[in-house]
Amino acid sequence: MNRTPILFLNVLVIATCGLVYELLAGTLASYVLGDSVTQFSLVIGIYLSALGVGAWASRYVENDLARRFVDVELGVAVVGGASAPLLFLSFAHLSYFHVVLYGVVFLIGALVGLEIPLLMRILKDHLDFKELVARVLAFDYLGALVASLLFPIFLVPKLGLVRTSLIFGVLNAGVGLWGTWLMRPIIKGDVTGLRVRAVIVMALLVAGIIKADALTSLAEDAMFADDIVYSKTTTYQRIVVTRNRAGFQLFLNGNLQFSSADEYRYHEALVHPAMMLASDKGTAPRRVLVLGGGDGLALREILKYPSVESVTLVDLDPDMTRLSRRFIPLAELNRRSFDDPRVHVVNMDAMIWLEEEAPPFDAAIVDFPDPNTFALGKLYTTRFYRLLKQRLAPDAAVSVQCTSPLFARNSYWCIVRTMEAAGFSVRPYYTAVPSFGVWGYALARREPFAVPQHVTGALGLELKFLDDSALAAMFMLSADLGPVPVEINRLDNQSLVRYYESEWKRYE
Description:
It is a single chain. This protein is α/β, with parallel strands linked by helices and 508 residues long. Helix content is 54%, strand content 15%. The chain folds into 3 domains: 4-214, Up-down Bundle (Growth Hormone, Chain: A); 223-258, Roll (Spermidine Synthase, Chain: A, domain 2); 262-507, Vaccinia Virus protein VP39 (Rossmann fold, 3-Layer(aba) Sandwich). The strands form 2 sheets. A 7-stranded mixed sheet has the order 7-6-5-8-9-11-10, sandwiched between helices. The chain starts with a helix and ends with a helix.
């Protein structure tokens, strides 16, 4: 039997598993530490350098190559398979998480870097050097492609981070076990011990797969101060809802989005200045656009206006908008706004959706998560705001959440200046939200404008926080919130993401 083609399949599996472990580590690092750009860069750099260290170390493996290959494969299965639960638990319980993170990444990289040279030396008697290198590298890079496609499309959204690492650990252990039969003619001595170890490793990892949800809950219970009542990994993010005596809280990728105890301050400040500005020329807003806001809380405020005939909400994640309908506490908090016949939900990338044709909107509420990744940062660029401007009526008003002008002052003013560079006239404002602290917004229109002076007017809006005095105070920025020199956020530089990461990193 010619075992050479099958051994090349091992190269494919090894490369796929190795890249999956690297992507898992980078995703977990950005999830728990928040600094996505730096963490992914470091993880990739450490992993690639460790591959080189492993390849260099392979020169010292001289005898019984096949047995050593199986040993290394089982080592990858144990370390890589356990990497996600280990990193989750380490972050929750250890103060030196960075050491564990980079240590695990380096160890996985070194073991994977050791495997490929060993397989090449095992195969060298079956192929000439040129053919051997060509095939090994081809399968190696093909494995990287397979992993990069599977990871975001299937593995994370369908299996979750913990279960993915454990399943690929089983796959590595299976390759090791299979290798004891495939390479039996060149393995010296008895192979029973190798097979028993492989079976034990597989059994432990399978047990971990069965208990994957419990492992995730165990780690997240330590990461969050309050009891977790809902959690789900979607195609786009990790959604966690916690509850305490004051109410419940929504977290996306570990970042607090709102607390039911005080969210009304945030959403009243976000929505009503724009709605009132859109009404200042005697024509009340009829068509309203919401970008983000999948929790439905901005919708709740918009639907208080009797003039509103339709609201289009564009949110990327269908699981988020489904949660807002089906999770009873949230549905009650947003007053079942998604069931209102005036509301139309589009689950799509907002930037792509803005390029489509549609009748102009009278007001737009932009409620995206903070720009802590390049994927989110593009939604704060001049390109995005120019697309948004094209979808608005001439006198339409826009409000944008802009992170904190106190804790992230450069980030805040970067958003304001970027909107101005896109052709908007912008008035910055802020309010205090106890769960977040001082929080900033931008109110904008095509032409210069005076800020609204009166809140309720003749509408008699049901508001908890916003009145005439609060409205006036929001637009009076103190000296420590004032303008600072910043770059404009463009698609080709994403300066906002750099500002955001460097500023919020101080408060970790």
